[in-house]
């Protein structure tokens, strides 16, 4: 079934799945995952699927899942509040130093990033956290601490997470900090991160709580990651509070990093400049209450960005590819959403098997970034064609700026 905007996958004994995926590949496993989700009895209207869709843990990445009376914690995931922030500056390409490596090194010194392999599963200090938190981080933490204490009183294990020391840090994987140029040569700062260790612990805890509830009430599911919390229960209310707090942490995390990024650049570029000429700070892994088709519903965006009429968002390409500042068109059928990026076409393991370091070096030519075997999984060829992704959602957003990175910092 087709119309002018999207394709519809009808699901037997379930809600329809509306897919903005024309001209981009969609793996069979992702379709099967979407089908399972669409059969949950509390799905409202339909599921909306963005063109960067691909198989995910818990829920399909690139999906918008509206629900009535229940939330699926695994659909939100463990990187709660993960998202993007971008700020335009008054600098131009001519103001950048001849040595972009010097700029990259300054940023890497200013923002903790990555994770030491020795700390995985270890409860000591993560190398990607602060050793001694700066005063600006301490000040930001005070705005979060009181509610965190309330949440920890209900769920004490959350206190043992990396929380305060992770505020203002990048993380690893596909998280990044970039210096970009737009179509007119203006310099932008852009970064991608979320709620870090504390969000992971919150997500992991409530995913397991939901699974325990399913077992307790003998509820059979097509996939255990579809375990849900029902509205009106204690666990539901606790999760809504905790996930909302984690989303606040994620937004503030990006703001603190941006402040440190700007300060780092000023140590290299001595010319006075202003930032936030245009600025965006948006989540793409989150849940919140919204009104759609006249009904208040919980909307989970798993790898999707809010695109209400006139609302600015960020759609990054892969490492070495273009990124876009976009303005939402407010398409109600997508629940006012758009994609959160290009979307992977293969797993990280497959990317490392298929591509070489030489491939990664060629693909990131002209970008000052890591060029080593540990980041081969982020090679642009492991992602969908960003131009095709943007074309598939042209009725969801319009492009305001096109950005190309010149410096990229990854964990």
UniProtKB/TrEMBL annotation:
Reaction(s) the record says it catalyses: a 3'-end 3'-phospho-ribonucleotide-RNA + a 5'-end dephospho-ribonucleoside-RNA + GTP = a ribonucleotidyl-ribonucleotide-RNA + GMP + diphosphate; a 3'-end 2',3'-cyclophospho-ribonucleotide-RNA + a 5'-end dephospho-ribonucleoside-RNA + GTP + H2O = a ribonucleotidyl-ribonucleotide-RNA + GMP + diphosphate + H(+)
KW Secreted (keyword) present: no
Cofactor note: Binds 2 manganese ions per subunit.
GO molecular-function terms, A-Z: DNA ligase activity; GTP binding; manganese ion binding; RNA ligase (GTP) activity
Cofactor: Mn(2+)
Enzyme class: ligase
One GO BP: RNA processing
InterPro entries linked to this entry: RtcB (IPR001233), RtcB-like (IPR052915), RtcB-like_sf (IPR036025)
Residues given in the record as Mn(2+) 2 binding sites: 192, 284
Family of the protein in this entry: Belongs to the RtcB family.
Subunit structure comment from the entry: Monomer.
The protein's name in its UniProt record: 3'-phosphate/5'-hydroxy nucleic acid ligase
Species of the source: Pseudoduganella buxea
